[in-house]
Amino acid sequence: MSAPTAKGRPSLTEGPIAKTLLLFSLPILLGNVLQTLNGSINTMWIGKFLGETALAATSNANIIMFFLISAIFGISMAGVILIGQNLGAKRVEEAKRVVGTSTVFFAILSIIVGFIGVVFSSTILDWMNTPADAKELAVAYTRIIFAGVPFMFGFNLVMAVLRGSGDAKTPFYFLLLSAVLDVILNPLLIKGYGPFPEMGISGSATATFFAQMVSFILLLFYLYAKKYFLRITKNDIHMLRLNWAIIRTLIKKGLPMGLNMVVVSVSNLFLIHLVNSYGSEASAAFGVANQISSYVQMPAMAIGGAVTSMAAQNIGAGNWERVHRITWTGVGFNIGLTGLLVLLLHWFDRGALGLFLPQTGKAIELGLVINDISLWSFILFGVFNVIAGVVRSSGSVIMPLVFSFVSLLIVRIPLSYLLGGQYGFDAIWWSFPVSFMIAMTLNIWFYRYGNWKKANMLGKPAAATR
């Protein structure tokens, strides 16, 4: 997957860039496929067994979950980048201190987020203008999902640390386990087959809860059995504390990255508020279109995650020429892979939507409109996602946040409401290519002419050269 160090640990600072990037991003891509396929199959079970109202309920619930996950996403990403830079600079003990502090801090935040999700689900769903016929189902689904947030966040933190240290394969194996468990348990708990109780939409949430819990616990057992080099042993218990120097770095760098996710979430909340005003069929169409667009985004997300880890280690090593080659190699991979997926999904659009929606209903026609207008614009999304990932890996996190804020909240949302009000539901989706084009242009400009290379997350800055 990546060139090994003298001690047998993976390194992303050596070897051919294209091959290393491809092999490192492939398990991330497959993991993203698993997670999205898992969600898609669960959506199919809900749609087939419980109908369009239940689909609208899960669409609203998943938007909320994404919003609350954003609260700690930035902290975990800052930890990954800090670990990567320390490993690139060959400061392994400092990387382990980051793991210890991140574990404690992340655990506290995940409990807070889970509590908020359980207690305030109904209120938040009301704020989102959730259709009345879907409200009760959405509350039932959401509360169980958020009861499992500590397991979900814990799994994602360990997975991110592994990737930050150069291991993308291990997370994939345990994502596979989680997906298989979730897919198998969903129909059993929804319909109550065999010894399982019939739980309806709550059964789908319970299946997800159990799959994430089991995968997280087994992943921890595996890492300790394999003596993973960044694990916290009994001799390292003192590292499981809130090191305030590390906390300040995590907050200073992580908060803007978390806010970037919040910007995306708020944008989605405004958008689904608009879509909900068109009724449950529109909400179901939007939810399914989101499922399909998530597949289109997968190459960009995988390559973006890979270039972030690779760039962080190389920045820590002071190898800036390699960082630039990683960036443009990642952009090229994204354009090719995302473009191919866009073409395939346009050819099989109705068939893909028909996996989730009735072939003769109004919802599938609305979904076709959304995809016809918006799918191709995710090529632009991929370009700016890769470039922004490299910029953030240096510790420069403010400008990518500003660009996301401008493109999504200043441009997309007002434009979508304006177009929807003036020209109807179909016109809303032109806001996607417009906002992605602006975000891509701003990120490329800052990468070329900004001062992001002077940012640093380590105590001693690495020399930055073009």
Q: Which tags fit this structure?
A:
466 residues; mainly alpha; two-stranded antiparallel ribbon; 2 strands; disordered N terminus; membrane
Description:
It holds the Pfam family MatE. One of its GO terms (molecular function) is antiporter activity. It is found in: Cell membrane. The chain is built from 16 helices and two strands. By secondary structure, it is mainly α. It has one domain (12-454). Strands 1-2 form a two-stranded antiparallel sheet.
Write the layout of secondary structure elements.
Layout: E1 3-4, E2 10-11, H1 17-50, H2 52-88, H3 92-119, H4 121-127, H5 132-147, H6 149-164, H7 169-191, H8 201-225, H9 244-276, H10 280-316, H11 320-347, H12 349-354, H13 362-374, H14 378-393, H15 398-423, H16 431-449
Helix pairs in contact: 1-2, 1-7, 1-10, 1-11, 2-3, 2-5, 2-6, 2-9, 2-10, 3-5, 3-6, 4-5, 5-8, 6-8, 7-8, 9-15, 10-11, 10-13, 10-14, 11-14, 14-16, 15-16
The SS-based structural class is mainly alpha
Q: What is the CA-CA span between the terminal residues?
A: 27 Å
Could you say which overall geometry the principal axes of the C-alpha atoms support? globular
Kindly report the spatial arrangement of strands forming the biggest sheet: 1-2
State the helicity in percent bands: over 70%
Tally the structural domains.
1
Strand content: under 5%
The rounded Rg comes to: 22 Å
| Number of discrete helical segments | 16
| SSE run | EEHHHHHHHHHHHHHHHH
Q: Would you report the number of β strands?
A: 2
Q: Please outline the major beta sheet.
A: 2 strands, antiparallel
Average pLDDT metric: 85
Low-pLDDT segments: 1-6, 460-466
